[in-house]
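Board notes (copied after class):
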Amino acid sequence: MDEAVKDARHLTYANLELLWHGGAPLVLPVHGTPQCELQFDPEVGQITLVTDYQSPEPDLAKLQNISFEPICIDGRDVARITVRVDHNVHGAYGLLAVIADELQVDNSPLAVAVAAGVEQYKDMLTARRGLTTEEEVGLLGELMFLDYLLPAIGSGPAVQAWLGPFREEHDFGFDGFDLEVKTTVSERRRHVIAGLNQLVPRSGAALLLLSIQVTRAGGETGLTLPGLVAQVRTLAGANVVGLDRLLFATGWRVEDADLYATRWTLRNTPRAYLVGTDFPAITEAALASMIPNAGLLSDVSYKVDVTDLKHDAMPAPLSGFVESQGE
């Protein structure tokens, strides 16, 4: 069947806009086999194609603006493919029309039909990127400490102390000292230091590197990143609005929660290390004393393995989060 005949099966853009902007929900059958119908819901802002269920199911988990749901209606197994209009009713309708044509005209399996529609309208369905694994692990470590901090010093001071999401000098700031939180999945406490200023203490304040090792948890043990987010949001109480602002700044999006299915747990008790004169930190001052024209260097990052270094205590009431000096 040529494209002109396919186009005749569907609404013109003028009629589509008239129906959509009328504001009332409606159901439009698309004639053919398998049975297909389009459900318009202008108030919610979405259009849904309902058709016969087939396996394998289409994989839409990593895409935005489109979702798949298998349900049973009056004993009939159906598939619901829903597209969020988001100010593009032509694109949403066109995508579902392509899927209907693939099913009814080209006799494609459901997964193939949906893939064809997604390919044609891929610009509208930009893949959800979420956080990288490295970013996920980094956020996990900061939230593990925040989970301890909230009841230890109170939700208001704890939320105010979390500076990392706004790219401040260090991840947490307190009176008289700061914390730089580093989290790794490796068996040794090997951490990436980004830049020449990350381990430079603020004037008048001590700096501690907080080393956290996590590992993937088996079964139902441990916590996913969404589970930990939910936990700290509960602890934040009346300060949850400020916490949500910080979480957003890290790249966390609640609509992407399903992307983070890995369960994590602490590999061992975290340790704290005072960043003093004997700590192996590369700084602008250190480079300037050894390298000519060191100011011309940029984008410096390096790894430091603190496993065998002497670890330190943290001031109360934070000392319970880390391994004590005698252990």
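Comment from the instructor: The longest helix spans residues 133-153. The chain has a mean pLDDT of 91.
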